[in-house]
Amino acid sequence: MDLDLAPQHATFRTAVRELAQGVARPHAADVDREHRFPEEAIDAARAAGLLGVLIPREYGGAGLDAIAFAVCIEELAQACASTSVIVDVHTSVGSEPILLFGNEEQKRRWLPELASGELLGAFALTEPASGSDAASLKTTARRNGEGYVLNGTKVFITNIGRAGLYVVFARTGPDEKAAGVSAFLVPGDAPGVRVGQVFKKMGLNGSPTGELVLEDVVVPAANRLGLEGQGFTVAMRALDSGRIGISGQALGIAQAAVDESRSVLAERESAQGDEFMLADMATRLESARLLAYHAAWLCTQGRPFTRQASMAKLHCTDTAMDLALDAVQLAGEEGVVAGSPFERHVRDAKALQIYEGSNQVQRIVIARELLRGSSIPL
Ligand SMILES: Cc1cc2nc3c(=O)[nH]c(=O)nc-3n(C[C@H](O)[C@H](O)[C@H](O)COP(=O)(O)OP(=O)(O)OC[C@H]3O[C@@H](n4cnc5c(N)ncnc54)[C@H](O)[C@@H]3O)c2cc1C
Hints:
By secondary structure, the chain is an alpha+beta fold. It has helices spanning 7-34, 39-47, 66-79, 81-91, 96-101, 104-116, 231-267, 272-300, 306-331, 333-336, 341-350, 359-371; strands at residues 121-124, 140-144, 147-158, 165-171, 181-187, 193-198, 209-220, 224-225.
């Protein structure tokens, strides 16, 4: 049993940390304050090949695995949570569906530009009346000769306006639930695609989130990802590995909260109660990290990992939220000052408990897997 990172992952972590701490972290506060896209960090990530982590070398990517992906997102999030969510969504749910479900032509058409970061990817599932109950989505894709015509509105789409490619889920069949959903690759500049409202959020302010409006958008049949009616499977599989990324994000925020708390206690005469709090924070962080990396490892082994990814997402994001609040408590008045990293971590951590399946939904997934008979390996 070896719980150390393999040498290549450890080397990769060092390289991403250097970039994250050197380029992303110095801008994290102003990116948050000004609600601006973290251009410097994304440019640096693009130049370092971090936007193609999961894409095989033959399509221009780095050809790394889910462990490297978790490492990458964790390191970025520790420095700047906004940067991490942009890279995370692009890498996992915004690009990986093509890798997993695309045909050779689709892979050759889209993956090189996604890997180089020339195109940013996005994932458009959520609608005004369908969030947790994603299978009830209303966007339509009507067959029209050799292609489809898409109509509908997606909400809370990460990388809105910045993405050159959206993986869009729309209803192609009369079935009102999952079986009627198909997935499409929709270029951001296709006629009829426009950005609606862009939401001002409490955190992750550098990551644009908003409405994707589709008005009579014509896409060729070649842009359908997978079979007609397979869209819901595409979405659920993408979210499984997406949850490894969200776990990484949560670990990064939690690690930053622990590190800043250590600095606070090192600089003042701390009471034993404070030190116990720090010890509990570090213990929770370590347990969360083990869950996340176990899920990532299962994924790299090609073994089932749905339940472990949901457990990791649930535990890591709850841990990040709690540790961010603990860090404010330990910092005292300094922690509540607007613009301090302490209060920023609290605001950034909250959305992680909601997106890519809320933590209630993770409990539904975990319970369903357990009741289906998938036992916990010892
Ligand atoms: C910052 C941010 C970025 C996002 N980015 C994307 C993106 O890129 N692409 C995308 O498609 N979506 C994105 N989303 C949307 C996100 O995935 C949804 O917010 C999420 O799925 C929850 O849906 P909802 O907000 O509609 O909540 P609802 O489904 O309306 O749920 C409201 C509350 O009820 C709970 N609840 C719902 N059903 C149940 C149930 N059966 N049992 C118990 N509790 C339940 C939920 O857990 C939640 O607490 C993003 C959201 C945020 C906040």
